[in-house]
Amino acid sequence: MYNALMNIENMTLKTPYLSLDNEFYDLRNPEPLDEPYLISFNPEAAKLIDLDSESYNDPLLIALLNGAFSPKGSRFFAMCYAGHQFGNYNPWLGDGRAMNLGSTLGWNLQLKGSGETLYSRTADGRAAMRSSIREYLMSEAMHHLGIPTTRALGIIGSKTKIIRNQMENAAIVMRMSTSWIRFGSFEYFYYNREYAKLEALAEYVITESFPHLQKDEDRFYKMFCEVLERTASLIAKWQGIGFNHGVMNTDNMSIEGLTIDYGPYAMLDDFNYNYICNHTDKIGRYSYGEQPNISYWNLTKLSEALSPIVSKEKMQKKLDEYGAFIYPNAYIDVVRKKLGLSVKNTNDAQLVEELVVTLHEAYVDHTLFFRTLSRYDGDRAPLYDIAMEPVVVDNWLKLYDKRLLDETSTQAERQERMLQTNPKYILKNYMIQDAIEKAECDDYSMVETLLYIASHPYDELPEFENFAGDTPEEYKNIGLSCSS
Ligand code: AMP
Ligand code: MG
Q1: 297 C-alpha to ligand 2 centroid (Å)
Q2: Active site residues
Q3: Which atom of ligand 1 is nearest to the CA of 247?
Q4: What average pLDDT does the chain have?
Q5: Which residue has a Cα nearest atom 11 of ligand 1?
Q6: Ligand 1 site, CB within 6 A
Q7: Contact, 32 vs 62, CB < 8 A?
Q8: Which of 120, 246, 247, 457 could cross-link with 96 by S-S, CB 3.0 to 4.6 Å?
Q9: How far is CA 211 from each of CA 114, 147, 204, 219, 329, rounded to the nearest angstrom?
Q10: 3-class secondary structure, 165
Q11: Confidence bin at 435 (pLDDT 50/70/90)
């Protein structure tokens, strides 16, 4: 059957967000970059909005990504929000460098780095090419790892200069999300005591993200519960894959439980529970191991923001459950799956706890450990080979061997499941850094290579075996700066 795909010229967007009061946004036109050129186009994201995957040939693509072409029905706007940054309330955040165009098929399109908005404060509204490449690649990688995330349609580079630690070239990524509402969007109206607008925002979120609650009398409370459960599931998945976000401020927490606003993130190299990817985070507030606690803290801030329209007691009870079992169970389920366990056993929590201690003490690459374990058949040598402290691994394997006796599926079935759960390929920062350094010399081939690897995390790709090993010692668990 002929399936009419859209091209950029006839793409039509809607802007339901603009039906909210004008305090919710800043209508503002982008400031296009100089001499823009395409760095990469992502046909998988194009498919989601029914856009022809051949659109990389479309002369309008660069104009679209540069904010120089406005699709039918679209209006450019930045969204308003506040948020707690490193524990302190900031009443004035918002899209300081992002502009929305509108939505189609449930995807809200947004340009990141397209110029100043009402919310730019003292900054320039731009995004450096290096951080744009990082966001572009990692959001795709996360999606293919089964982790809820925003997506990206494409990225352009330019000759526009911006000042960061040095002069750099600016870029724009077109991001797509099923929601751009953040915990901080609610905080803005709560702290301004604008409760009618707070309620209007809640209704908007229900329509956009939780339409099954629309007719429910208790819909605001149930919305809170959904956000909380999605957050539990998201953070459990981050912990399971070894993702450290780095800037878990409440303005970077998605109301749909998506990974948003990729900054100084990192995937763990050697497992280190206390790893801090963001090197401006001196005390490790947003370290890998703290992420579950911080998610709870952020949810308490959301509950405060919702308190004018939802019972505080009911939300507190749900928060208590989050700490007591909703998050812990979500995490144990994730790890159980990574261990190939198909039946639930009451002692699994302990097995998982011991595993975390083991990984921390064994000095072993997180990804390599689980991938190697996915082929475990009783022979421990392959696991000893990858750990600096094999004795620690040995102790835990004794527990695992015992636990496997409770399983009903065969070893081959378990291995098959694990190979589809524990990736062979993840994007480590040193790989992305290599792609960035090449891009800075006008060679974008590595961006394409990493995009390909990112979309095949569980496959055996013999030509890319060099991306599946241990991280070179000099690049292990380095920190990144927030400046982007
Ligand atoms: P982040 O934590 O990186 O997601 O950003 C925190 C806040 O700073 C958000 O309100 C951003 O829009 C804003 N911001 C970050 N970089 C810039 C920039 N170069 N220009 C304007 N606003 C920015
Ligand atoms: Mg942000």
Answers
A1: 17
A2: 251
A3: 2
A4: 97
A5: 96
A6: 93-97, 119-120, 123-126, 247, 249, 252, 261, 263
A7: no
A8: 120
A9: 31, 22, 10, 10, 26
A10: coil
A11: very high
**What is the arithmetic mean of pLDDT over 136-165?**
97
Question: In whole angstroms, how large is the CA radius of gyration of the chain?
Answer: 23
| Burial of residue 354, with CB atoms counted within 10 A of its CB: 0-12 exposed, 13-18 middle, 19 or more buried | middle
Q: Is the dihedral of CA 249, 254, 257, 259 positive or negative?
A: negative
How far, in Å, from the CA of 396 to the mean position of ligand 2? 39
Structure tokens at 439: 């891009």
Rounded to the nearest 5°, which phi and psi values hold at 56?
-65, -20
Amino acid identity, position 164: R
Per-residue model confidence as pLDDT tens digits over 190-225: 999 999 999 999 999 999 999 999 999 999 999 999
* Residue 1 binned pLDDT confidence (cut-offs 50, 70, 90): very low
Distance, CA 439 to ligand 2 centroid (Å)? 25
The amino acid sitting at 10 is N
Distance 146 CA to ligand 1 centre (A): 27
Residue 261 Cα: closest atom of ligand 1: 4
* Position 189, amino acid: F
| C-beta separation of 375 from 412 below 8 A | no
Residues with CB under 5 A from ligand 2 (ion): 252, 261
Query: Hey, what amino acid is at 431?
Result: M
Provide the b/e sequence for 296-311 (b: ≥16 CB within 10 Å): bebbebbbebbebbbe
Which of 269, 399, 268 lies closest to 339 in space, CA to CA? 399
Of all protein residues, the one whose alpha carbon is nearest to atom 4 of ligand 1 is 261
